[in-house]
Structures are given as C-alpha cells and as structure tokens.
Amino acid sequence: MILFFPIFILNFFGGIIGGIWLMILGEWGAVGIALAVALFGAFFCGFLSMPGLLFSAPGVALYQKKGILRLISYPLLFLGLLWTFMVMSIWALGIFHIFLDKSDSTTLVPMMLVAFGAATGPWSYMAQQEARGGNEYSSLTAMCLSLASAVTLFFLAFTEMNAFKVLGIFLSIMIIAFLIQLFILIKLQNEEINNT
Questions:
Q1: Domain ranges of the chain
Q2: Which pLDDT tens digit goes with each residue over 40-99?
Q3: Greatest CA separation found in the chain?
Q4: How far is 94 from 123, CA to CA, in rounded Å?
Q5: How far apart are CA 128 and CA 136, in angstroms?
Q6: In whole angstroms, what is the distance from residue 115 CA to residue 107 CA?
Q7: DSSP label of 26
Q8: What is the DSSP letter of 134?
Q9: End-to-end CA distance of the chain
Q10: How far is CA 48 from CA 63, 78, 88, 183, in A?
Q11: Whether 120 contacts 148, CB under 8 Å
Q12: Nearest by Cα to 107 from 28, 15, 24, 22
C-alpha cells in the first residue's frame, strides 16, 4: 500500500493539475486531446479489448471442466490476458508518445502529467465498473498499468533517460505484472475448483 499510495494521489490529481498547468501555458491542443480521451477513452479501450474475450470467455468455461478440457483452457486464458496487457501497453505508450511529441522544455512536466491521466484513466474507469460487477481482477491490471505509467512519467519528466530505455522499463514492469496476474488467476481458479 505504501508503494501504491503516491500512485493513487497521481491518479486522482495528476491529470487535473497537468491540464490546468497546460491551460495556463496556452497548450489548448493538448488539453483538447486529454478531454477527448476523458470522454471517449473508456469506450475506445473497451472496444479494443473485445477480441480478448474470444479467448477469455471460452477459457473460463473450459477451466470449469475436468480432464483435457481444463488443459485446453490454459492457452485460452493466457491469450486473453495477453491481449488485454498488449492493448493496455500499446494504448499507454501511444498516449505518452503523443504528449511527448507535443512537449518542449517548458511543457514537459504538465504534458507527462496529462499523459499519465490519459493513459490510465480509461482503464481505471473500466476497472471500477467491472469491480462493481464482481470482477476484482481488473483493478489489479489497472493498478499495474498505473505503476508502469507512473515510472514512465517520472523518467521522462524528471531525468535525462533515453526514451527507448524508458520503454524497456515500462515493458519490463508490464511483463512482470502480466506473469503475476496469470499466476494469481490460475491459483484462484485452482482454489475455486478444489472448494467445489
């Protein structure tokens, strides 16, 4: 929790502070992009995530069975989760790229704050909606994206690190998060099967 508390604060205030800062600087194009993402980002990200359901839904159904059907479920669950992480990563990296391209030395920090909000906001919103429906796994996935994006924000805005190295750090965090979530998902499914 100590690690994630600054990310909670960043999730709540980062985009707002960055947006106000950019308005003061007259960067209305970046503010417009951020507003468009705030309005339509969750819909767009949800649409991009839908092909993953082609793997996840049958994977969950097959996992409830025994024998060879359960074995078939593992690759499907893997592919469904992989699709989600790929879409999230491409979305976040694309957003950071857009705002990094628009930035200069005077606007870099607020651009990265707004990029963080635009990269994580739609996923956090969708995770909240899914948590209300009983799917708490989405919150973990959104939190992993927030962590990777916060690290990206820090290195891009406050260090001289090369963007390709930052990309490597982002992808490393997301790969580790993917593997942890895959392990948790399989462990929880095993516990659920054993309890029935």
A1: 7-195
A2: 999 999 999 999 989 988 988 888 887 788 778 888 888 998 999 999 999 999 999 999
A3: 62
A4: 14
A5: 9
A6: 12
A7: T
A8: T
A9: 32
A10: 25, 17, 9, 24
A11: no
A12: 22
